[in-house]
Write a structure and sequence with these properties.
With about 55 residues, the protein is mainly α. It contains two helices and no strands. The longest helix has 24 residues.
């Protein structure tokens, strides 16, 4: 799973992202769902209130 490789295994440590070795499978799944939910909420808010330039 790419998400676990990045978050738990530290694939992006050379780019400055920390490794979270202590995260189990359930914690990874919860974190992934949290990120997906917040992304969906952000898209809903910005679609309803577009910034005018």
């Amino acid at each position: 799973m790419a998400f676990a490789t990045v978050v738990r295994d530290g694939a992006l440590v050379p780019n400055g992202m920390p490794r979270f070795e202590g995260f189990g499978d359930a914690e990874l799944a919860a974190l992934r769902q949290y990120i997906r939910r917040n992304d969906a909420d952000w898209h809903m808010r910005t679609a309803q209130n577009p910034i005018r330039q």
